[in-house]
Amino acid sequence: MNHFLRRQGWVTGLFALLIVLFIATKIIQPGYGSGDFGSLARAVLPYAFAVAAQTVVVIAGGIDLSVAAMMALTSVTAASMMAGASEEYALFVVPFVLAMGFVLGAFNGLLIVVTRVPDIVVTLAMLFVLQGAALLVLGAPGGGAAEWLKALISGTVPIPGLPAAIDAWLPKALLVLIVCLCVIWIPLRRSRLGLSIYAIGSSELAAFRSGVPVARTRVIAYALSGLFAAMGGLALTMSTGIGAPIPGPYLLASVAAVVLGGVALGGGKGGLLGPIVAVFVLRLVRTDLTLLAIDPNVTAIIEGAIMVAVVMFGAFITMRGRQ
Question: What is the pTM of this model?
Fold first, then answer.
């Protein structure tokens, strides 16, 4: 237990903070229950995938400013393809959109590797490109989504042998998030590729001298980021039933959650669990501000201040580490 706390002390602290926030939410709103938690899980779903996309890239020593625009493009692509189509057609749309995100992410990585332009510049340029492409696909929110996809994240998961009161606290959206992330992250984290991603983030030169294919690893890291972003785009379409061509507030939120989750902005340190818990923390803070009837404009200011403070703190820690 002591070994676990030493290694996962930051994540443990985040879990403690999350529990304190849940208690505060219950005090503010005594009627807060399983239905509200299910709504929170559905709201967190696209943010969590955006954070996963950002985490992989940051661990590899980079940053991806095109995550939100890629989510918008994959969301409107899925919504436009499923509009008026049969339920079975969505079985083709889902893998197509996921492959699309993977290819777009790999293209980002290729541009960075081939041109040797800083990733912040390349992904900023791709942000505008992908945002324009999303508006070409759908000029305004619209499209549709298969009913079985929307049902996939609605309601709770019945577990045989457990009381219904416990089942009500396991929303389908949370289960979908856990399964999707674990299927990709756990094998990646324990593979040679995962070690290579951490290695190039820690020291690209040392990784190169150790025989790590730096260029290929960086491209794959961005490709995985695109895959997670496509999952986020699908989550948006599944949650709302339509596609939205305007990128939401997922970029800054993803960077803030990555830093709050204990991932070093310099790369090579951190995991996925901390940032995912950080997403729930940030969204629950917004819930509490809403329950307190804080003016929406003030809420936006507070959220922005928290995110900026977290990112500045992460940058400060990174600079100190380099010194």
Answer: 0.90
